[in-house]
Design brief:
alpha/beta; six-stranded mixed beta sheet; 7 helices; 26% helix; globular
Length: 272
C-alpha cells in the first residue's frame, strides 16, 4: 500500500448559497491538487450549511447535481473527494416520515468520489438536535473501498465522533483512514480535539477530522480541522482560519503501531 497525500479543506459556508460554496470548495480543491493531494475532504453539508429555511431548494435528488460537479473535478484531477450534502427523495409510504418535510425525505448524505465515479455513500445514522426534526437517519455503517488507491475509507459525520462504536466498527471492518466531516460549533473545541484524538488512538488509525469555520444564523465555528496519526499526534492543524491542510499518510506507520500495541488482537468482544 503506497503512501498518499490527504488534504482537508476548512472553509466558511455561506448559508443556503449553493453556487458560491461549491465554487469556493473547488477553488480550494485546486490549491490542494497543486500541492499534490490525492484525497480531499470537505466539511459536512459544505454546499449549503444546515439550510433549514430553504430545505426544498437545498436538498438534491439523484443524480445529485453537486456531486456531479465534484465528479467532473475528480475525474479531471484523478483524485478522491469526500464530504456531505443534503439529500432529498420521495417518501416511503410504508414508513412514518417526518411531518415537517411535507412528505419529502431529507438526509445528511455523505459521499466518496474516486476518479470521477461515486465510490460510495453514507447516510448519517445519528442526527443531532434540530436535525432530528428534518433528516431521516441512515441504518447502515460500512466502509467505502477505493480501488485506485487500494485503501478503505471509514466515514462518519459530526456528532458521530462522540460514538466510539462507529469508528471501532469501521476500523474492525478494514478502514485504512478514518474521516470525520463536521459542523462542530463553539464552545466545544476542547471536546472536538479530545474526541478526534481518542478516535485515532483507540483505533490506531490515521484520522482526517474536517470541521468548518465562520458562522451560520445559529452558531459560530472554531475550525480546528486536523490530520492525526495512529498515535494521536497532530500532523496538521488548521486552527480557526479558512485554509487547506495537507499531510502524507504513511500506512506502514499504522501497521507498526498495531504490531507494537496489539489492541485488535487483544480485544475480548465476548465480554463487551
Amino acid at each position: 500500500m503506497k503512501n498518499i497525500k490527504a488534504a482537508a479543506i476548512q472553509m466558511d459556508i455561506s448559508q443556503c448559497n449553493k453556487q458560491d460554496n461549491i465554487d469556493k470548495a473547488l477553488m480550494l480543491s485546486e490549491k490542494a491538487i497543486s500541492h499534490g493531494a490525492d484525497l480531499i475532504v470537505l466539511p459536512e453539508v459544505f454546499s449549503t450549511g444546515f439550510c433549514y429555511e430553504e430545505l426544498e431548494n437545498a436538498g438534491e435528488s439523484e443524480p445529485f447535481p453537486t456531486i456531479e460537479r465534484l465528479k467532473e473535478f475528480s475525474r479531471h484531477n484523478s483524485c478522491v473527494m469526500i464530504g456531505s450534502i443534503i439529500g432529498k427523495s420521495e417518501p416511503d409510504l410504508n414508513k412514518n416520515e417526518l411531518a415537517k418535510n411535507k412528505g419529502t425525505v431529507f438526509t445528511n448524505l455523505g459521499f466518496c468520489i474516486e476518479n470521477g465515479e461515486l465510490a460510495g455513500t453514507y447516510t448519517k445514522t445519528h442526527p443531532f438536535g434540530r436535525e432530528k426534526g428534518y433528516f431521516r437517519a441512515g441504518n447502515s455503517i460500512e466502509p467505502i473501498c477505493l480501488k485506485s488507491l487500494d485503501i478503505t475509507i471509514g466515514l462518519q459525520i459530526c456528532y458521530e465522533i462522540r460514538f466510539p462504536e462507529i469508528a471501532r466498527k469501521l476500523a474492525i471492518e478494514g478502514s485504512d483512514i478514518l474521516v470525520t466531516i463536521a459542523e462542530f460549533p463553539n464552545p466545544r473545541e476542547y471536546q472536538w480535539r479530545s474526541l478526534a484524538t481518542a478516535r485515532a488512538v483507540e483505533n490506531q488509525i490515521y484520522h482526517v477530522a474536517c470541521n468548518r469555520t465562520g458562522s451560520d444564523p445559529d452558531s459560530t465555528f472554531f475550525g480546528a480541522t486536523m490530520i492525526l496519526d495512529p498515535l494521536g499526534n497532530v500532523l496538521a492543524d488548521a486552527e480557526d482560519k479558512e485554509c487547506i491542510i495537507i499531510h502524507e499518510i504513511d500506512f506502514s506507520m499504522m501497521e507498526q503501531t498495531r504490531q507494537a500495541i496489539p489492541v485488535f488482537n487483544d480485544r475480548r468482544p465476548d465480554l463487551y
